Structure prediction request, 468 residues.
Amino acid sequence: MDETPSILLATPSSHSENELISLIHRRLGCRVEEARTVSDVSEKVTARSFDVVLLDHELCVTEGVALIQRLRHIDPEVSVMVMTEMEDLDSALNYLKGGAADCTVKSPSARLVDHLARIVQRKTLRSHGSRARRRLLQNYLEHPEHFADIISADSKLLGLLISVESVARSMHPVLISGETGTGKDLFASALHSASGRDGPFVVENVSGLDDALFSDALFGHVRGAFTGAADDRAGLIERASGGTLFLDEVGDLDVKSQVKLLRVIEHHEYYRLGSDTPCRCDVRFVVATNHDLNALMNEGRFRKDLYYRLSTHEIAIPPLRERHGDISLLAHHFVARFAVDSGGRTMSLSEEGIRSLERYRFPGNVRELQSLILHAIRVAGDETIGSHHFMGFSRELDDALQGRLSKVLPEPESVVFGETLPNMQSIADILIDEALRRAGGNQSEAARLIGVTPSAVSKRLKRRDESN
Prediction:
C-alpha cells in the first residue's frame, strides 16, 4: 500500500500555485491534486482519502466553515488547513472553531510549507492504522462509530466487538471480565453507546465499599434515614434511569451487597434507605471484574445465583500479550494523541522501539503501554523514541530490554529431588502452587502458565481442600 501523504489543493485559480506545488513536492514529497470549485472539493474527498485539504479562503468566502464541517463529515480523518490573504484573526478563529486544523497566510513560501509539514506529520501519526481499522470494522459492524475508542485490529477482539453489538440492545446484564488495564471501561461505554438507551452512562467502582456504603450509593436515601442524612439523595439507579449503570470491580462486593444487587436485578425495583415506597428500576446493568469469579464462587466469596444473572452475556477481554499486532498500533496511537495534546509537537517512534515493545509481555496491559509511551516522550524530548527511552519506567521492563527476561518471562528452572521421589499427586500440587504464586493467585493465569484449563486447576484445588 502506498503510504505517501496526499494533499488536495483547493483554490479558485492556478495563478502562482505551481510554485507552491513545487515547494510541497520538494520539501514534503507529498502527492498533490487540485480542485477549483467547492463541489469539486466535496466530490474528490468523497471519492478518495486525503491526508490534508489545503483550502484557499477565496474559494469559500461565504461557506468556509460549512465546507470544513461537510468535509469532516465525509472523512472524519481528514485535516483541513485554510489559507487567507492577510492576518485575519476573526476569520482564523471561526475556521478553527469550525474544525480546521490550522490557518495561515497564503503565499508560496517556506513558512506556509512549514505549517503544512506540521499538519501532515501530526495527521500521519494520528491516522496510523485508523482508516484500515475503520474499513475492517465496517465489514463486520453495523455501527462502527460506537466502538471508535477501542483501538485494535486483532481478530479475537474484533469478534468481541461483534458480540457486544449483538447484545447491546438487550436488557439483560453484561459481565465484562479481563485483567487490569485491558479496557473494560471502554467496552462498557461502547456497549451503552450501541444500546440506543436515552439515559446516562453512570460509572461506579464498588471496590472498597462496605455493605452500608454500597446500599446508600446504589439506592440513595431519604431525609432522616440515618444520622447525617439531612436531605434526600438519589442513588446510582435513579441517576442512571433510562440508561446504563456500570459497576466496576464487582468481584470485590461482600456477600450481603451481592444479595441486594441480585434482588434489584431480578425484581426491577428497590427501596431508598429509610423509605417503604418501592421505586422502579429502569437501568441496564453492566459489571466488570479482574477476578476469577469461578475461583471466588468455589471459595464461597461470590454467589453463584448472582453470577448466573450477571453472566447472561459475558465478554472476556484478552490481555495485550495475546493481541501481538495491537502493540504497534496502540503505541503509534498514543504517540499521536500525546502529540496533539501537546499542541502539535513533533514526535515519532522508531521501528527498533516498536520491536522492543513487542518482546515485552505487558502485565499491566494497555494502561501500562499508555503510561510507558508518556514516560518515553518525556525522556526523548525532540528525539525519535527508541528502546533506550523506555529504560527507567519499571524494573521488569528494564530486565526485558536488557535480555534478563526472568522478571517477565520466567525461564525453566531445574527441579532438585531428594532421595525419595514424590508421587504424581504431590508434583501436580507443587506445580499448581508455584503457578498460583507467580500469577498472584489468579487461577486463569496460573492455568495458562502450566498449559491446563482454569477449570482443571479449580477442580484440583477443590479436591485437595475436601481431602484436607
The CA atoms of residues 173 and 312 lie 6 Å apart. The longest helix spans residues 324-341. The chain has 20 helices and 14 strands. The two ends are 63 Å apart (CA to CA).
